[in-house]
Amino acid sequence: MRRKVIRCPCGARHNVPDGAVRIECPKCGRIFGKPKLAPNQTREMERRRRQMEKK
Predict the structure, then answer these.
(1) Which DSSP helix (H) or strand (E) runs through 16?
(2) Whose CA is closest to 25, among 38, 9, 49?
């Protein structure tokens, strides 16, 4: 597996294993990665996607 290096604005650098979704910086607590969507946001995105497919 390849490791990815992320650079946090606080100056820290972290090795991240491939496939990691949410990474928290141990130095400042900032979270990197995809945000978790609320269930209603997910449904809204699906609804919009279906509307675009119909057009």
Answers:
(1) strand 13-17
(2) 9
User: pLDDT tens, position by position, for the chain (55 residues)?
Assistant: 566 788 888 888 878 777 677 788 888 888 887 766 667 777 788 888 888 887 6
Spell out the domain ranges in the chain: 3-54
**DSSP code of 11?**
S
Is the Cβ–Cβ distance between 23 and 35 less than 8 Å?
no
Considering only CA atoms, which of 13, 52, 45 is closest in space to residue 34? 45
Distance CA 2, CA 43 (A): 34
